[in-house]
Write a structure and sequence with these properties.
The protein is mostly helical. It has helices spanning 17-27, 43-46, 65-71, 92-102. It starts with 16 loop residues before the first helix and ends in a 19-residue tail after the last helix. The relative contact order is 0.22.
């Protein structure tokens, strides 16, 4: 049997905090945690970020990809890492959300405890 199916390509998800929150809540992120926007990196604008803030996701275009990769530090500790492949070419926002969630799991006020029976658990 020959498989003539088109290869799967991840559909892009709009870079919108409400869409990310709804998507991740349906995957097991508790409702007490959400996503927001940062309107600038000046101190007075950063003061608007709800606390506690466990992670920051930034969309940025890298113009010098090889140089930027060379500057990366593989020694930075994290519990979860997922490499983005060509099939997941439009999934960068979802992958960033998953990294933010799965690298902040645990017990306590400033940690995430996922909902049982959901895709992220």
């Amino acid at each position: 049997m020959v498989d003539n199916q088109e290869p799967f390509n991840w559909p892009p998800l709009e870079s919108n905090p409400d869409i990310f929150a709804n998507y991740m809540h349906s995957a097991g992120l508790p409702a007490r945690w959400t996503f927001g926007e940062i309107y600038g990196f000046e101190e007075d604008l950063l003061a608007f970020i709800p606390q506690p803030c466990l992670a920051v996701i930034i969309n940025a275009e890298f113009l010098k990809k090889q140089e930027d990769r060379a500057r990366g530090d593989l020694a930075v500790a994290n519990d979860y890492y997922m490499k983005q492949t060509g099939v997941l070419d439009n999934a960068c926002g979802v992958i960033a959300c998953i990294h933010a969630i799965l690298n902040n799991l645990g017990e306590g006020d400033n940690k995430i405890k996922l909902e049982e029976g959901k895709p992220l658990t």
